[in-house]
Amino acid sequence: MKINRHGRAKVLTQSEIQLIFSNGLDNERDRTIFGICLYTACRINEACTLNTEDVYDKKMRVRDEIIFRRHNTKGKLAARAVPVIEELRGLLVKYKPLRREGFLFPGRHGRGHINSESASRILRFACEIVGLEGVSTHSFRRTALTQMSNAGIPLRIIQEISGHRNLEELQKYLEVRPEQVRGAVAALSMLGHTGNSYVRKSVFPDLNPMPDTKSVSSD
């Protein structure tokens, strides 16, 4: 069930992610679709429109990078390649594509590719099973981008992964947690308007004490 988040997808916690993948999604295809969204920060339509050859080589081995082709990206701005981490590789190894060519996630009766709306319904049903609210297909992308930002990855590098056209658009995706705000405000205590009551001074012992009777050379 969706809740009003003012147009912003819910950022998932680790426990919520584990709940969705272990108890909500019930087959390898669905876990692989949303695993790609989570571990590459791609949009749901970009995952749904992947070709098998964008992910696997001719011997059906998982590639080191997933290729998102320009004509499948939002705005058709540019192609991009995102490295495959071990967590995603594990999902891709388990998933068995039906064909070596064509779409990685075929639609009904093997025609075209799975529709992003169909993927959205699958996720809604999975979240209903595990009792999660406010989750959408965009939650995986927003969760991934927020996680990278919190890990201190420079925004320009995150932009290269996400495919956003500018940093302003990227920043709209990043969630600021209440504890981060509290920590930022707490840092203001160092300003200490009442003096020593707020600012602690560190006292370091003189390693080489010099008697007062000796003068120090100005050289």
- Number of helical segments? 9
Biggest sheet, open or closed, and with what strands and sense?
A: 2 strands, antiparallel
Sheet with the most strands: spatial strand order: 1-2
Share of residues in helices: 40-55%
List segments where confidence is low: pLDDT < 50 over at least 5 consecutive residues. Answer: 1-6, 197-219
Q: What string, H for helix and E for strand, traces the elements in order?
A: HHHEEHHHHHH
What's the end-to-end separation, in Å? 76 Å
Beta strand %: under 5%
Structural class: mainly alpha
Rg measurement, Å: 25 Å
Mean of all residue-level pLDDT scores? 80
Q: What gross morphology would you assign? A: globular
What can you tell me about this protein's structure?
- The chain has 219 residues and is mostly helical.
- It has helices at residues 14-24, 28-40, 44-48, 86-94, 116-130, 138-150, 155-162, 167-171, 178-186, and strands at residues 65-68, 80-83.
- It has a two-stranded antiparallel sheet with strand order 1-2.
- The chain is globular.
Short description:
With 219 residues, the protein is mainly α.
How would you summarize the topology of this molecule?
Elements: H1 14-24, H2 28-40, H3 44-48, E1 65-68, E2 80-83, H4 86-94, H5 116-130, H6 138-150, H7 155-162, H8 167-171, H9 178-186
Antiparallel strand pairs: 1-2
Helix pairs in contact: 1-5, 2-4, 2-6
Descriptive terms for the model:
219 residues, two-stranded antiparallel ribbon, 2 strands
